[in-house]
């Protein structure tokens, strides 16, 4: 968390992590399309020649509160390709929360596990405690054949501490639920670690409602996003 005293602005860093082509960028594209223009900045993307994310995507989401504090959420993705670990580590530095985007396809179980283990390693390398920092898991691509069953995903959810969401990000299904689940945990974490609510007079209800009011939920199911990394 960063606080600019002169501008009365709190900036929070949210990182979308996961294996290549799992739908990290697609999540940000869906959020960008569903948040009305007054509540978001420009979605900036740096791609490779094969149209996969090389460095990162950034989507600023912002709102003002009744206490006069402006809140800016910076949503980043990391490149999923194995060779870009140094970039993943760099983007993850200073993160306030992480959304892990897993691929529901059974054939990609190993890729999911490798990426999850890489996330844990890079958190520790950045001085982030995996047992404290807010993390949610999204199983994306629920519209494809040969995927993990709902029962299997529910079992994973029962075994871990992280809330688990199911999504079809190219259509917008599960995208906002994932974001709001993570932001709920983030507010709680910031209150415990930085006395956020008392210091800035921003309750969890106000925190979430200020984002929610800018979202056009009528677009869920109507999006048709080209899948990327």
Fold and architecture overview:
The protein has a single domain, classed as 3-Layer(aba) Sandwich (Rossmann fold), CATH 3.40.50. The protein contains seven helices and eight strands; from the N terminus they run E-E-H-E-E-E-H-E-H-E-H-E-H-H-H. The protein has helices spanning 24-34, 85-92, 109-125, 150-159, 175-194, 196-200, 204-212; strands at residues 2-4, 9-17, 44-47, 53-64, 70-77, 97-103, 135-140, 164-166. The radius of gyration is 17 Å and the shape is globular. The two termini are 27 Å apart. The model has no long low-confidence stretch (mean pLDDT 91).
Per the CATH scheme, the topology name is Rossmann fold
CATH architecture: 3-Layer(aba) Sandwich
- Estimate nothing, just give the exact number of structural domains: 1
Strand tally is: 8
What is this structure's SSE topology?
Layout: E1 2-4, E2 9-17, H1 24-34, E3 44-47, E4 53-64, E5 70-77, H2 85-92, E6 97-103, H3 109-125, E7 135-140, H4 150-159, E8 164-166, H5 175-194, H6 196-200, H7 204-212
Helix pairs in contact: 2-3
Summarize the structure.
This protein is of the alpha/beta class and 229 residues long. The protein contains seven helices and eight strands, in the order ββαβββαβαβαβααα.
List keywords for this structure.
eight-stranded mixed beta sheet, 229 residues, 23% strand, 7 helices, alpha/beta, Rossmann fold
């Amino acid at each position: 968390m960063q606080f600019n005293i002169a501008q009365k602005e709190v900036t929070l860093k949210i990182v979308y992590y996961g294996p290549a082509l799992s739908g990290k960028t697609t999540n940000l594209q869906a959020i960008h399309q569903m948040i009305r223009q007054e509540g978001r900045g420009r979605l900036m993307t740096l791609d490779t020649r094969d149209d996969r994310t090389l460095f990162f995507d950034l989507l600023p989401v912002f709102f003002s509160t009744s206490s006069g504090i402006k809140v800016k959420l910076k949503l980043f993705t990391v490149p999923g390709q194995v060779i870009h670990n140094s970039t993943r580590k760099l983007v993850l530095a200073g993160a306030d929360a992480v959304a892990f985007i897993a691929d529901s396809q059974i054939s990609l179980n190993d890729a999911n596990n490798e990426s999850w283990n890489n996330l844990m390693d890079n958190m520790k390398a950045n001085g982030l405690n995996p047992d404290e920092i807010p993390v949610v898991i999204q199983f994306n691509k629920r519209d494809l054949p040969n995927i993990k069953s709902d029962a299997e995903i529910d079992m994973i959810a029962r075994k871990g501490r992280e809330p688990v969401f199911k999504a079809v990000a190219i259509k917008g299904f599960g995208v906002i639920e994932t974001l709001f689940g993570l932001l709920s945990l983030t507010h709680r974490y910031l209150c415990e670690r930085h006395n956020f609510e008392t210091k800035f007079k921003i309750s969890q209800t106000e925190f979430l409602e200020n984002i929610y009011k800018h979202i056009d939920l009528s677009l869920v199911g109507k999006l048709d996003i080209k899948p990327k990394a």
